[in-house]
Fold this protein.
Amino acid sequence: MKYFNLWLALQQFITCHIITKPMKTQAYISSVLCFALFPFPQGVLKKHETGWENEQLKGRVKSCRILYYNAIIVSGNVSKSNNVPFEESYSLFDTRGNEIESSDRNSSTHKNVKIISTYNSTEYCTKTVKYEYNGKDTTIQVALHKYDDKGNEAETQLSLLSKTSSENGNGSLKAIYKYDVNGNLLQGNYIKGNDTTLPQNVYTYDKQGNVTEDDFYNGSENLQTRTINVYNVKGTKTERTDYWYNDGPAVVKKLVCQYDEHGNVIKGDEYDAVGTLLANGSFKIYYDNVGNRIKQIEYINNKPVFITEYKIIYYQ
């Protein structure tokens, strides 16, 4: 799909690029196996940030179901191209805001995945189990999360229990994280099988603790990608520039975003290295009376591309 690259870039921008919670694997990195599978540590986030905050949800949300549709124009109105969503995700939270269950269903690939998360008494996620459903739940991944005495995630041990594990060494992956004195993640080292070091990410921060640079090195310690982030005075990321190094001059793309009063991205323009506008994206967002999204229409180059619906249930 010709609009997918900008759409993906906007999603990565919205999720703060390197920051994901332990129970999901949404990190924008590379196709290297361990990177595709490893979630980033919770230590990058504010200490004890709840699942509600992580998902930018307001109020005491019990569950959130998100339905994704392709969009078309019918009689001048933006409509779903099909009443069946091409993808559906679901999150269940406990009364303290921890995400205890999440799932994702893709109608085109017929792949159904569920993740169950376990927390300790201090509200840190200690274990995540990933299941694939094909008539019955089959455990395919188990991740154990360990923390240092400051609450930073120090290590993630991932065991692959599906066919993937037999195709990739002993099916065991490990990530070890290093932090500065302020608890900012500086480096992630990834180990597979018999302690063979795989690619790593190295991060740089400003005085406010915002990630200003994210460098990704391949297994040969060569710089493969670099991301530079720019923030406004409120600490909100407004620009992201990506550099790709593939045995030649860097390929550069820049994304500039604007936000609404709720703090959600409503506009994103993509530029090349010389500042030529490549594409523009925008969001029309509808909210409930609590301030959570209930519907979102995504446009690329002023054409509606996706409709997203949010079905939220609150604790009474």
Q: What stands out?
A: The CA atoms of residues 112 and 134 lie 7 Å apart. The helical segments are 4-14, 33-37, 51-54, 163-166.
